[in-house]
Request: fold
Amino acid sequence: MELETAVRELAPQLLRYSIGRTGDAALAEEVAQDALAALVQRWRRHGPPDCPAAFAFAVARRRAGRLMLQRRLLEPLHALLDGHSPLPGPEERATLSIHLGRTLAALRKLPRRDREALLLVGAGELGPTEGARVLGITVPALKMRLHRARRRLRQLLEARDGHQD
Amino acid sequence: MDTRTDGGVDGRLREALEPSPEAVGRIVRAALAVERPARTARLVPAVAGAAALLALAALYLGRPPAKAPVSIENVGEVLVVQRQEGGRVLIRNGSAAGSSSPSGSMIVIHGGTQ
Reply:
């Protein structure tokens, strides 16, 4: 596989994962871009990794975790200094599509590990083997988390659809 | 438990999280614009490390030699022990030293019959 092809294929997958993970389009772009840049550098220096997708998603996962933590830690400081929180405010949240906002709200209700598995495989389109590799767990354990996450998310989305009707 | 039989949940998730084509294009362009690492750039840390080691070595070698607390000099049969602070001891084996220093000197006769 060519580097450019891999980057083009992975870009939307990484963005979906990052949006689901951060709930913020700008932050998601930053995460996805860093992951792809790391992949490009690695590819050019040492050749393609065994699994480019697993490599890029592992970077994105770490980067997203760090950025989210950073935001949470800096939030009180920003609020104190200039009254502005780095977390998406009500206006920014309102600009997200209603569909996206509701899906993100439902995702937040899932246990963290189950949500991570679903975002990698369901949103990021990683295979079970690659997903398990990124999370450092076995394939059966990943499948168990996926099963739980899908069942719970389906219930949440159906409940939401019922409320809308 | 097949991960592919998701009951449409994955599809709904992807649909909701679908990024804009502009965002995809931006990150693809930015990622591919990452420059190939220059060989010289990779050598910079190594060269800096070597320079630091050389500077340390030069400082170590260029420092003034530490003075010994005493110096011992053999003059004929007499050993002259000169202390850094100024004192001096003459040591002669077997008999008294022929002459003594005017001040701060001591003659030690070791192993003689006197």
User: Anything to note?
Assistant: Chain A has one domain: 3-164.
